[in-house]
Amino acid sequence: MASIHIEAVRKTFGNFPVLHGVDLTIENGEFIVLVGPSGCGKSTLLRMIAGLEEVSSGEIRIAGKRVNEAAPKDRDIAMVFQSYALYPHMSVADNMSYSLRIRRTPKEKIADAVNGAAAKLGLDTFLERRPKALSGGQRQRVAMGRAIVRQPKAFLFDEPLSNLDARLREQMRAEIKRLHGQLGATSIYVTHDQIEAMTLADRIVAMHGGYVQQIGSPLELYDRPANLFVAGFIGSPGMNFLKGVYYREGTTAAVRVSSRLSVPAPVTTQLSSGAEVTLGIRPEHVALTSEGRFSASVDLVEPTGFGVILHLSIDGVAFKVFTQDRATLVPAKEISFDLPLERLHLFNAEGVRVID
Q: Which DSSP letter does residue 114 get?
């Protein structure tokens, strides 16, 4: 396996810039997830690492070697695609061994590699089948097996679970994480699904508009989002935001959301009194209490089984609460709650986090 170093990498299609200078070091054996909405540049970055797209400027090094000009076949990496990309006329065993056969690998080594990968992926009894006789999840495991037998320096995953249903995605996430633990392989995984990112990654690279917004462990991005984009993208249901004006007096502070609503806020010297801010809190951190400081009308109740999502309206602003209290399933015109000070996030007018 190998480390991957990306330095000041940019990509432009014609006159249209897609990536605006990406810097990222992926350590040997690390599982990195590139996450963001469609069009953020994550798949383009992955394809540049694979050699499927040219680098407009900057440098990519794999195991210390510059690979900007290297052909994909010379980079010693394996890619797992969203579309599986299996040969329909070949058996599972032949699909998995194809890259080894074209390299004229001895038959004994091919058999050992295929059988070993099949055992790890639960494909032992499917080796003679063709892709059309497999389920979507089994086909994706074959695609992963084809990558494993090559024993590459790194694995690249391009939204490999997007074509699967929700239950199968959950199962495959667990299999991919278990497999990574067994192989210890350097892996880069692209997804727009923040649940996949949170459950799989050693570190997450959150991207938006061609820029890296934040790099950190899943809980770092959840607990301390660097800006409004990361705060809103990571977590489900998404974070609540209230725009207002920050006021500080001595050791206390508040955000005035409207003439009728003022919320106690964290004290920070990074903001001057009167500054425009956005206050954030995750729905699961809102404290429902009969003696709450705040109240709001309930517009909608969504039971999820594990809990209940309440859709509120605070001075005309949509606001969500997640709770496991099933008593809230009974419709109520209003509900009272508190916003715990230690659970609040504060962002300046530019959308940047301003509290530690």
A: H
